[in-house]
Input
Amino acid sequence: MIKVGIIGATGYAGQELVRILQQHKEAHILWYGSKSYSGKKYCEVYQNMFQLIPDRCLDEDMQKLAEQADVIFTATPQGYCASIMKEEILSNTKIIDLSADFRLKDAAVYEDWYGMRHKCPQFIGEAVYGLPEINREAVQKARLIANPGCYPTCSILTIAPLLKEGFIAPDSIIIDAKSGTSGAGRGAKVTNLYCEVNENIKAYGVATHRHTPEIEEQLSLAAGRPLAINFTPHLIPMNRGILVTAYASLTKAVTYEEVKAVYDRYYDKEYFVRVLEKEVYPETRWVEGSNFVDINFKIDHRTNRIIMLGAMDNLVKGAAGQAVQNMNLMFGLDEKEGLQLVPMFP
Output
């Protein structure tokens, strides 16, 4: 059994890790780390775990945990993982970081967008960007995984195939994205109160959202050159889900069949990416609670542009599910272990 530790086990992404790993045949959670609830029974924090998890939450002693666990998930705010990372820890265990601390390959870019000094830049080069559909072989060999952000996961998987094949102009990409409120975390914030989000939709982080450089960096790798995008996220009054609608200019005249062939070639063997049938467009309700990403497109011949759409659950494929997918690869397991979650509806 893989001995697992979770730091930040009582946040939304942390509790989703717990839910998924409870069904994992090859993993056992030995440490439910929580700064806010240390000493309290986990099932008292999340009543859905009553009679399922008798354990109490522990502190966030990474040094001690690294001596016991085969892998540690850090589902923590930006800056935490970098602040405690050192060779002594990585020599004892593997780390899957769900924050942005090691996603960007330039510490200066991280510091500019996140407004904090990067406290452990020496490990940035080693960290593997944990998007299995793109970096599977590197993930398998890694000891430090930078688990991708939710918006970037959906955006990259939706856009990258056509970018790599030269079907779309790199500098024409516009991403309009929408997310449920769980994407903002469990911490109490006035802007996330029921009366603030109910019956409302709003754009936020306009031209400044922290996931922008992450999306740009990965799509630049796909394009083979640096690019800049317009990315605008929106908050939707629902618990879970991300919907990405991306627009780009076509570089040549293409047919539906040609574009579909590209997506099929990239994702035909990818269990967690579902390319939908013609004229069937992604909806968050059909991926909720699962590790699936649903993708489709529409060619707009009138404007010579293509509309690319993707939907996924921000807490599963956008966070905990992808982290477990990475863990499975790192330990040579079936990539789907613990993740064959049927989407919930209604």
